[in-house]
Amino acid sequence: SLLERCEIQVQKDRCAGVLTIENEDSFHSWCKNPPQLGWIAIYLGGFPSRSKMGLLRRLAALGLKISHWGDLDCGGIEIFLFLERELEMTINPVGMSPNFLELYKESSQS
Predict the structure, then answer these.
(1) Which residues does residue 39 pair with via DSSP β-bridges, in sequence order?
(2) Which residues lie below 8 Å from residue 55, measured CB to CB, with a gap of 6+?
(3) Alpha-carbon distance 13 to 105, whole Å?
(4) Which of 10, 32, 60, 105 gives the lowest tally of CB atoms within 10 Å of its CB?
(5) H or E segment at 52?
(6) Residue 68 is inside which H or E element, if any?
(7) What is the per-residue pLDDT across 15-36, written as a single tens digit (0 to 9) for each?
(8) 31 alpha carbon, distance to own chain's centre
């Protein structure tokens, strides 16, 4: 796909990180009025496609931190955990309680 073939050039000193956003309304809200500048926002629309995962892996390989804003439901939490597992890195939750995520991780492992 085009996403997989494009060359990525990021000025790391100008880029705060990457924010993946599960929900379309949240994505449009962020893009219209970003609370923080310098973030690359990527709309996921649920679980990320193979090409979006490829892009995220390439951005993570550049040393960029990755955050995720997902819904606080089973699907949203599963997407968060999927990103952490597939990218093999700690993902910072945005708008998601870290305590809630820890409880979910513990309950899903038992």
Answers:
(1) 17
(2) 3, 4, 8, 42
(3) 33
(4) 32
(5) helix 50-61
(6) strand 66-69
(7) 888 999 999 999 999 889 888 7
(8) 15
